[in-house]
Every structure is written in structure tokens, then in C-alpha cells.
């Protein structure tokens, strides 16, 4: 048996997650379909096995959180914290993602076809995030490592207190946060964006040369007593 279907209208999320954690690999199941998610929270969290989970509808909070190795596809929108603390693998949201998408992701790829809410990529630690639409304010706040591609617009304070993560944005930016600045796109940047767009399935929709690079000015790395709290 290589595939299995769970119906959350008749089975609890805990039963689904227990199966994915403890039995899927042992039984050789590589594909799991989740019907009638109806916005349930914590679907497919903490996975550490090579399995593809397809959620047929909208997911609630923390779908695909702490993901490792697995591929999680949400054929709808996702609530707060989708793919938070992801280590590897892929999470693909085909609709809208709410606040804190990809928070603290250490690795892997998060793809959001639509828009993302506030603080997308907050405290990013090494993962890659590609958003096909726009993102809300304070996205990439304190992002430490990784790459963040925004194909639409961005709200206020993009990249506030940015460390070594790099942001690529195509649309308008309402404002940059403290210590974030625009930098010239290099050939390496164009290659990176081209590759990420291809990985996200958006290669034919955007040209990497239309994006701008945002990175840290590094003025916040050390405390400056004479700055009078102004940066």
C-alpha cells in the first residue's frame, strides 16, 4: 500500500498525526490524502519521514509545523504559523497564508501561491520562502539566515532588525525596517531568484531581473550608546 486517505470529518487530527509519525514509513505509505480538513489545527506537524501529505481544503494553525523531510501540500489557505520551525522538506500553500508563515524556519522550502499576512518569515533561520503574492507588515523581522522571495508588494517595516537573511522583492515596499537597505542585484542574486522561482513552480510568471535585493546594513550588530535609540 503506497497511499492512504484520512477523512477528518470522521477521524481526529491526533489519529492522522499518530499514523504519520509511527506507522506510515513502516507500512511503506508514501502519499497520504486528508479530506475535510475544515480548518483543523496542527495538521501534519513534526513529520520526520519521506511522505507527501495533501490537504484537500483549508488548514488551521501550525499546519506542517516543525516539518522534516516530508512534503505537505495545502490545497486551500492556512492559518497562523504554517511551516513554523521547518527543518527540511517542502510546504506548499496554494491559497492565502495567515500571520507568521515560516516563522523560525531552519531549512526547507515554503511556497505560498497567494498572499501572506503579518510577520511572514519572522526570525527566519535558514529556510527559503517564496510568496507569489504580497506580504504584510514586519515580514522578515529579525530574519537571521535564509532567502525570502516576494513576488508582490510588502507592507511596513520589511526586514526590520534584519541579520544575514536576504530578501528579494518585485513589487512596492511601503517601508523598510530598521537596518534594512536596498543593495545591487548581482549575477549570483539573479541566479538564486531564478532557481527559487523554479523550485516554487513560478518560473514562467516572473523574471528574476525585476526583483530588488534587501539586506542588512549591519549597524545594529553592536550597541551604540551615542545613537539615542535612533537607528
Automatic annotation (TrEMBL):
Which molecular-function annotations from GO does this UniProt entry contain? oxidoreductase activity
Q: Which InterPro entries match?
A: Glu_synth_asu_C_sf, Glu_synth_lsu_3
- Give the source species: Derxia gummosa DSM 723
**Could you identify this protein by its name?**
Protein glxC
Q: Which residues cross the membrane?
A: none
